[in-house]
Design goal:
Layout (H helix, E strand, L loop, with lengths): L14 H11 L3 H4 L6 E5 L4 H12 L3 E6 L2 H13 L4 E5 L8 H12 L4 E4 L14 H30 L2 E6 L15 H21 L4 E8 L8 H13 L13 H7 L11 E4 L7
Parallel strand pairs: 1-2, 1-4, 2-3, 4-5, 5-6, 6-7
Helix pairs in contact: 3-9, 5-6, 6-7
Bound molecules: NADP nicotinamide-adenine-dinucleotide phosphate (NAP).
Length: about 280
């Protein structure tokens, strides 16, 4: 005998619905991660973190469009990715020239017909003490790290994702957006832009959830790259010492996170960030 009010499978009015629901929609985990044939646009995909993420999405079966200003580096990246059998389009352009953004999106739509995944990765930094920080540095960083992300997301959303009621946008922020600086960083525009990018992520996720678009962010810690090289030469030891896992980010360390956020494995997650930083931001 069950206590009064106890719901058995037979008496629980939710049970049949739930069973039917599970039966009808259950998807294997591998299927949830499947992005084969999807189109991924990765800004700043010619080197560094962008190239690592392009490689990961290519390996998962996505068609790739990579952007950067320098066609030479894009060609090298495309050759590297092409050798692995991935389909790659290169689109050269300066994202901080906002009026060129629609033409860059045109190129991707002409080649692949749509955009399923947008990785807003291209970014810049500028180092100077706040009291002497030049307007040129502030504007350069803000134009690329924030304004261009907005204009590109707006264009891709309006022309590709909103009409089909689906899409994944992944913004590459930084642990520098989570705290004031430390580690000898004098990069006030960069830290400000990366924090702004996190609330941009939340605000866009909040507006575009109704269109089936997930908007999330990744906050990498220090990864060796052209951008971080100068600073790491000075502070690498102290960064590693302050990182619980005792290491910098490496060539494989963003791959799982981008594969997750670009796929339906993350379909019930939006407006969030994942710090990929060896634990630096929680130490
Ligand atoms: N490395 C780290 O430790 C670290 C940590 C946290 C966050 N991040 C973030 O990760 C992202 C990638 O950084 P990274 O370290 O890989 O830097 P990176 O090696 O300097 O790569 C930057 C990429 O962006 C492109 N780019 C730069 N300015 C551009 C512009 N105006 N228009 C279009 N493309 C432009 C570059 O190509 P061109 O020069 O040819 O334009 C390159 O492909 C950035 O958003 C950065 O803030 C990096």
């Amino acid at each position: 005998m069950h206590a009064p009010g106890y719901l058995t499978c037979d008496t629980n009015p939710l049970a049949p619905t739930r069973a039917l629901h599970l039966h009808e929609t259950a998807m294997g985990v591998k299927k949830l991660f499947d992005i084969a044939g999807k189109v991924a646009l990765i800004t700043g995909g010619s080197r560094g973190l962008g190239l690592q993420m392009a490689e990961a999405l290519g390996e998962m079966g996505a068609k790739l469009a990579i952007t950067a200003r320098k066609q030479g580096e894009l060609d090298e990246a495309a050759a590297f990715l092409g050798k692995q059998g991935y389909e790659v389009l290169t689109v050269a352009g300066d994202l901080s020239k906002f009026d060129t953004i629609p033409a860059m999106v045109d190129r991707v739509l002409e080649k692949f017909g749509t955009i399923d995944v947008l990785v807003n990765n291209a970014g810049a930094t500028w180092g100077a003490p706040a009291e002497d920080y030049p307007a040129e540095g502030w504007n350069k960083v803000m134009n690329l790290n924030i304004d261009a992300v907005f204009f590109l997301s707006q264009d891709v959303g309006k022309r590709a994702m909103i009409p089909k009621r689906s899409g994944k946008i992944v913004n590459i922020s930084s642990v520098a957006g989570l705290y004031g600086g430390g580690s000898g960083m004098t990069t006030i525009a960069y830290n400000t832009s990366k924090a702004a990018l996190l609330n941009f992520t939340r605000a866009l996720a909040s507006e575009w959830g109704k269109y089936g678009i997930n908007v999330n962010a990744i906050c990498p810690g220090f990864f060796p790259s052209k951008m971080s090289r100068g600073l790491l030469e000075k502070i690498e030891k102290s960064v590693i010492a302050a990182t619980p896992l005792g290491r910098l980010g490496g060539d494989e360390d963003l791959k799982g996170t981008i594969a997750f956020l670009a796929s339906d494995a993350s379909r019930h997650i939006t407006g969030q960030y994942i710090a990929v930083d060896g634990g630096a931001c929680i130490a």
